[in-house]
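My main concern about presentation is that the manuscript never shows what a single data entry looks like. Each protein is reduced to its one-letter sequence and a matching series of backbone shape codes. For the editor and my fellow referees, an illustration may be useful. For illustration, here is how one protein appears when written out as sequence plus structure tokens:
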Amino acid sequence: LFHWLTAAGLLIQIPLGFFLVDLEFDQTRIDIENYHILFGVILFYATLMRLTFKLLTPTPDFIESAFLGQKLIAKLNHLLLYLALLTVTISGILKKLFNGESIVIFFKKINLTYNYELSEQFYSIHVLANYVLIGLITLHILAVLFHKILLRENILKRIL
């Protein structure tokens, strides 16, 4: 459930972020950006819940035919996906906070002192982390296709 909710959220968030970049600064942009922030904070919470669940629940065993390199690549990709998700969400939150805006996190309204330089640095991190995340998602999808088409293993059944 966490996997597919995160995937659905990212299918909204990533295109929305690219769409925002080209918008003129007006009320429409502010409204869309507010939705982007809301969805981003929800993804942040979902990622934290997913990591908590992952720590408390044993991971299914690998398919017996998997070789050591596959296991290592899969674990590394998952770790990097979590890191990228957290980097994207946290950098987005910090960009907004250092831009002088407030955000409610863990039921507490947070304000930070305006700092243009830090806001821009976190925006750069946010953008870079998004590209890394897109690359990792692509690798993740290609791995599923590799298993399905070339190895004739239905690993999608394991996460449905």
In short: The chain has a mean pLDDT of 88.
